Amino acid sequence: MGRIAFVNGRYVPHAAAQVHVEDRGYQFADGVYEVCEVRDGALIDVTRHLDRLERSLDELRIDHPGERSALTLIMREVVRRNRIRNGMVYLQVTRGVAPRDHGFPADVRPSVVMTARAASRAKADAQAAAGIAVITVPDNRWDRVDIKSTSLLPNVLAKQAAREAGAYEAWFVDGDGFVTEGSSTNAWIVTREGTLVTRAAEHGILRGITRGVVSDVAATRQIRVVERPFSVEEAKTAREAFITAATTIVMPVVSIDGHAVGDGKPGPVALGLRAAFHDGVERLSA
Ligand code: PMP
Questions:
Q1: Are 113 and 19 in contact, with CB atoms under 8 Å apart?
Q2: Per-residue pLDDT averaged across 142-159, rounded?
Q3: How far does Cα 116 stand from its chain's mean position?
Q4: Which side of the chain, N or C, has fewer Cβ within a 10 Å radius?
Q5: Atom of ligand 1 minimally distant from the CA of 210
Q6: Does residue 142 have a cis bond before it (omega within 30 degrees)?
Q7: How many Å apart are CA 41 and CA 88, to the nearest integer?
């Protein structure tokens, strides 16, 4: 008998077990999981694991996928159907399937996936008898935001915070009070002298494609661009501010944390760059 997985209410052959491409777990890492040991056919510490699962779900405001008793029943059934005596059962819950958009979707049911796998106790015991080696690595979970990774959970939570505050975007601020970038956009200001300022694209931000094109377009219009950090205070008192991304192009920012930027209206520099943007792009007919 082959392996069986549980996917959203159905027990299916492991090889055919699939989730939707727009599952939030797949798109955003917007999900949580638990792994329980199976020993002599019994689930080990299931109460503690489900306690932690519920805590993780609550922290992310993902609906509970069902009663504990129902989840436990499915875990036992997955173990039973896979004939696992020793090994583990894996349980994942994501926010669900919805059109790709960072903020939380409305009216979505959490997705539930469970799998089980056997593990040799003799092998683990032999390993324990010999002992194992470790190496050390910098704890960079996850400061590699320069990589356009799908680990977007912090971005999801930031975008949702913006929506709940009646804003379009959230700007991340580093430990020194400097703006890094938006949850899905790069951040810019225009100084009193008319200089564009955006953070240098090293490890602290994603090197936006739109950001690069805007820099080029600015150069052709004799607008100076300086790559340096700017503080929240500097942004609030800047002449203009704007964000860039492939989906927003150049979008003027008129308010930061409730404080009007400039005269509280989109400024000429941002609107000029927005109008000129497509002069600077590469076009490939679809
Ligand atoms: N920063 C982040 C975190 C983003 O997700 C995005 C958009 N994907 C950007 C910046 C802007 O990048 P681009 O101009 O390539 O769309």
A1: yes
A2: 94
A3: 27
A4: C
A5: 14
A6: yes
A7: 10
Residue with CA closest to ligand 1 atom 7 = 184
Residue 148 among the catalytic residues: yes
The DSSP-derived string for 267-278 is -HHHHHHHHHGG
Q: Which of 145, 146, 151, 184 to mutate to test ligand 1, by most ligand atoms within 8 A of the CB atom?
A: 184
Report which residue type is found at 229.
Answer: P
Over residues 72-126, the pLDDT tens digits come to 999 999 999 999 999 999 999 999 999 999 999 999 999 999 999 999 999 999 9
Q: Which pTM was predicted?
A: 0.92
* Residue 246 alpha carbon, nearest atom of ligand 1: 16
User: How does pLDDT run across 17-64, given as a tens digit for each residue?
Assistant: 999 999 999 999 999 999 999 999 999 999 999 999 999 999 999 999
> Rounded to the nearest whole angstrom, what is the distance from the C-alpha of residue 20 to the centroid of ligand 1?
24
